[in-house]
C-alpha cells in the first residue's frame, strides 16, 4: 500500500517493520492487527485492529496510538522534547522548536516514549495528540 510505504520512508522504518501483522484499508484509513483480530467474526465489529493512519488525497497522517506501539526502529522524523514541551503538546499547544527533521508529520518523543504525533513546519510544532489525556 502506498500509504504504508510513505510512513515507512518518512520515519526510516525497516522494510519488515509490520512483519507478522495484517493490514486492512477501509473508511479512509488503514488498520493494523494480528491475523486473529482480522479474522474475528463472532460478531460484526465496528472496525478491526488499530487505526495506523488516515489517508487523505495529498497526505497520510499516522495516529498517535499506533505510533506509540510501533515506533521502535524509527530513524527519521523523530523530535525529542523536554518534559514541559511534552506537557504543552499533550494539552494541545503549539511550540517553537529547532528540530533536525524535515517538515511534515513527526513523532514527538520524551524520554524514549512517543507521546504523540505532531506536524512540524519549521520552527513550529503543532500537536496532533488526541486531547483525552489531560496533564497536570
In short:
The chain has 4 helices and 9 strands.
SSE map:
Elements: H1 2-11, E1 22-26, E2 29-33, H2 35-39, E3 50-56, E4 59-62, H3 64-70, E5 78-80, H4 83-90, E6 94-96, E7 104-110, E8 113-121, E9 124-127
The level-1 CATH class of the largest domain: Alpha Beta
* Beginning-to-end CA distance, first to last residue: 40 Å
Query: What is the number of domains?
Result: 2
Determine the mean pLDDT: 91
**Using DSSP, what is the number of strands?**
9
Describe, in plain words, how this protein is organized in 3D.
By secondary structure, the protein is of the alpha+beta class. It folds into two domains: 1-71, Nuclear Transport Factor 2, Chain: A (Roll); 77-128, Archaeosine Trna-guanine Transglycosylase, Chain: A, domain 4. It is built from four helices and nine strands. It has helices spanning 2-11, 35-39, 64-70, 83-90; strands spanning 22-26, 29-33, 50-56, 59-62, 78-80, 94-96, 104-110, 113-121, 124-127. Strands 5-7-8-9-6 form a five-stranded mixed sheet. A four-stranded antiparallel sheet has the order 1-2-3-4. It is globular. The model has no long low-confidence stretch (mean pLDDT 91).
Amino acid at each position: 500500500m502506498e500509504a504504508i510505504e510513505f510512513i515507512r520512508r518518512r520515519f526510516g522504518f525497516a522494510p519488515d517493520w509490520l512483519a507478522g501483522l495484517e493490514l486492512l484499508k477501509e473508511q479512509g484509513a488503514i488498520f493494523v492487527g494480528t491475523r486473529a483480530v482480522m479474522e474475528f467474526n463472532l460478531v460484526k465489529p465496528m472496525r478491526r485492529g488499530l487505526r495506523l493512519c488516515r489517508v487523505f488525497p495529498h497526505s497520510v497522517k499516522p495516529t498517535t496510538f499506533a505510533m506509540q506501539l510501533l515506533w521502535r526502529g524509527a530513524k527519521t522524523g523523530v523530535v525529542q522534547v523536554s518534559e514541559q514541551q511534552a506537557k504543552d503538546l499533550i494539552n494541545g499547544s503549539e511550540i517553537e522548536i529547532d528540530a533536525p527533521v524535515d517538515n511534515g508529520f513527526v513523532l514527538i518523543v520524551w524520554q524514549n516514549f512517543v507521546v504523540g504525533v505532531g506536524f512540524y513546519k519549521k520552527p513550529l510544532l503543532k500537536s496532533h495528540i488526541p486531547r483525552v489525556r489531560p496533564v497536570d
